[in-house]
Structures are given as structure tokens and as C-alpha cells.
Amino acid sequence: MSWRALRKPATVTSLSIILCIVLYWQSTNIHRQTTSCACGSCPKQNEDEGSWFSKRFNASFHPLMSSNSSVLSEKASKWWKRLQPRKGQPNYGEVVEKLFQIIPDKEYYRGTSPDRCRVCSVVGNSGNLKKSHYGRLIDASDFVIRINKGPTKGFEQDVGSKTTHRIIYPESAVDVDNSTHLVLVAFKPLDLEWLLNVFTTHRVRHTYTHVKSTIKANTSMVMVFNPSFMQYVHEAWLKKQGPQPSTGFLAVVFALHICDQVRVFGFGADKDGTWDHYFERIRPSFKTGQHKGTLEYDMIRELDKRHQIEMYRGW
Ligand SMILES: *[C@@H]1O[C@H](CO)[C@@H](O)[C@H](O)[C@H]1NC(C)=O
Ligand SMILES: *[C@@H]1O[C@H](CO)[C@@H](O)[C@H](O)[C@H]1NC(C)=O
Ligand SMILES: *[C@@H]1O[C@H](CO)[C@@H](O)[C@H](O)[C@H]1NC(C)=O
Ligand SMILES: *[C@@H]1O[C@H](CO)[C@@H](O)[C@H](O)[C@H]1NC(C)=O
């Protein structure tokens, strides 16, 4: 037998072995990436440690408060106290305790599941939704998260009709129907007390603006953002710029935490550069206010660029 004849089968065998190892490694690797959720792609789970996203996103912060998470870290407590006037605040611990006798004390939306594909739409209030015809796309999501008073009635074709979560603060509160989670952003203990009182005594203390003394909402579906989560969004996502994150930006990070895929509608200016609401005209100077800072908008654009969210601008 010649040297060549012996050599050839040996090469083929070792090549096959290498091929098998590579294929096996690939299949386990693909398996590992896709078991994190049941959607076609699970953007959060494909992130490497140290990536732009991983440096900001921290799954250990849970967006919603339960009695378990009602004790604030020193850092969160300090940050939260800075937002509020010193005088006239009720005792945080007492209000929280009373509140969880009225609303469910549940740990919502913990963890992920390989069988779950939860698609969420966050719908902002930008005028770029006008004539967008996004309604059907929005309603096809599992969760539809709306912000402040952004209405659906009369705007269904562009913004849809479904609302699973509506994120509000006392001054922006509106009634919600019996299938919507009212989600409170509390900037101070007084806001938590307000929530308690609208469902109990209907006697609310006024701060600097008028707030409603009753709200139509199913109390067994009311949720409250955890101040620790708000502090994390301010620090990790906004590098502490501005006094606090806006309701809209909190909604986007909330969705990143609890959903497998996130679509974002109604943020930013329209194609002519106008900042407006789809349901009303706003003062031109509004965009320079603390809630329309371009940093938040740039962050949303960056998330879109990095395929963590899908942004729909209407143009
Ligand atoms: C996430 O936050 C927790 C609690 O603050 C912290 O201990 C942890 O180091 C953070 N993880 C990352 C990856 O930053
Ligand atoms: C609080 O945490 C404990 C231990 O993790 C858990 O058993 C309990 O169900 C939690 N309480 C609520 C209201 O979720
Ligand atoms: C309130 O929500 C609970 C839980 O989702 C539901 O079982 C109940 O029917 C709702 N009540 C009303 C009046 O819609
Ligand atoms: C929820 O509201 C709808 C329409 O507003 C009503 O038809 C339905 O009976 C309500 N459900 C409950 C459980 O009250």
C-alpha cells in the first residue's frame, strides 16, 4: 500500500470529526440563544456582557413595587427625596402599607420563559402618529402601553384601541376601562397618598396643580412604579441628566424589562420637525421642557439602531 493511499482516509476521518464538533457546537449555541424566548428573535438575550446595552440594562431592577420591594435603597431614597418638596410629605412606609391593602401585593412579570413571546407596543403622544395607520399593528401586540392622557377614542386608525397599561402621575391621570392596568409614576410620597385617597376617601391634598379626587379604574389592576427602578433609569440610562426620567421614557425601559420584543410609536417630532401631540396642539416651547429632552429621544433612537426596539416614526 502506498503512503498516499493510507494518508487519505485518515484526513477524511479527522475532517469529519472536526465537522461534527463544529456542527454540534453551533446547534447547542443556537439552542442556547433561542431558548430565552419564543419570538423569532429575542434581542435582549443576544447581548454579550460589556455591550452598550448590557452596560445600561440591569434585570435585577424590577419596575413595579410590591411590599417586598417597598424598602428603598439608600441611593434610591436619597434620589427620590431630592425630587420632592421637604414639607407636607406623608410617611412613606405608612402610605405604602395602606396602599397594598387596596391594590394587589404581587410581584408582576418576573423572569423570562423559553415558551413566551410577549410583544409590546409603547405608544407615545407625538403628532407623528397622525395619518400613520398604525392602529392595527399596535392592537396586534400583547401589551399596549400608553402614556398620560393619550386618547384612543376617535384616533383608532392611527393609535389603535387596545390599552393594557396606562402610565400616569397624579396631575396627568385619566379614567381607564376595566381591562387596563393603571400604572402610577410617583415622584413623591404625596403621589402615593393621592392614589390611596382617590380609591378610598376621595379627599386629596393639593400640591401646586389641580389633581383629580376620583379615578375610574379597577383597583385590582393598579400598579405602582418602584422608585428604585426610576432611580436606575435616571442613572444607568440617562447618566443623571435632567431631574428625572419622563413618563414616556420610563414606559420604554419598563417594556424592555417585561417584554420579549418592543415596538415604539409616537415619540419625537413629525417629518417637518414639529413637536406636537396627535390629539391637541401644544405650545412650541414645550419641547425644551424637562420631559422632552433630546437625550431621551437619542437613547430611543440608539435602541432602535441596535435592534433592541423597533421604532415607528410615521414617516
Ligand atoms: C445591577 O444592579 C445591582 C443592584 O444595584 C448591582 O448589584 C449589580 O452589580 C448590577 N449589575 C450590573 C451588570 O451592572
Ligand atoms: C416576597 O418574597 C418572598 C420571598 O422571595 C415570596 O415568597 C413572597 O411571595 C413575596 N411576596 C409577594 C407579595 O410577592
Ligand atoms: C377587575 O380586575 C379583576 C382582575 O383582573 C377581574 O377579575 C375583575 O373582573 C375586574 N373587575 C371589573 C369590575 O372589571
Ligand atoms: C368591562 O367593561 C365592559 C365595557 O366597558 C363591560 O361590557 C364588561 O361587562 C366589564 N367587565 C366587568 C367584569 O365588569
UniProtKB/TrEMBL annotation:
Belongs to the glycosyltransferase 29 family. Pathway: Protein modification; protein glycosylation; Glycolipid biosynthesis. It is a single-pass type II membrane protein. The keyword Iron-sulfur does not apply. Disulfide bonds join C120-C259. It catalyses: a ganglioside GA1 (d18:1(4E)) + CMP-N-acetyl-beta-neuraminate = a ganglioside GM1b (d18:1(4E)) + CMP + H(+); a beta-D-galactosyl-(1->3)-N-acetyl-alpha-D-galactosaminyl derivative + CMP-N-acetyl-beta-neuraminate = an N-acetyl-alpha-neuraminyl-(2->3)-beta-D-galactosyl-(1->3)-N-acetyl-alpha-D-galactosaminyl derivative + CMP + H(+); a ganglioside GM1 (d18:1(4E)) + CMP-N-acetyl-beta-neuraminate = a ganglioside GD1a (d18:1(4E)) + CMP + H(+); a ganglioside GA1 + CMP-N-acetyl-beta-neuraminate = a ganglioside GM1b + CMP + H(+). Homodimer; disulfide-linked. Homodimer formation occurs in the endoplasmic reticulum. Its EC number is 2.4.3.2, 2.4.3.4. GO terms for cellular component: extracellular region; Golgi cisterna membrane. It is found in: Golgi apparatus, Golgi stack membrane; Secreted. It is an enzyme of class 2 (transferase). Its main location: Golgi. Keywords: Disulfide bond, Glycoprotein, Glycosyltransferase, Golgi apparatus, Lipid metabolism, Membrane, Secreted, Signal-anchor, Transferase, Transmembrane, Transmembrane helix. It comes from Alosa alosa. InterPro entries: Beta-gal_alpha2-3_sialyltrans (IPR051757), Glyco_trans_29 (IPR001675), GT29-like_sf (IPR038578), Sialyl_trans (IPR012163). One of its GO terms (molecular function) is beta-galactoside (CMP) alpha-2,3-sialyltransferase activity. One of its GO terms (biological process) is lipid metabolic process. This is CMP-N-acetylneuraminate-beta-galactosamide-alpha-2,3-sialyltransferase 1.
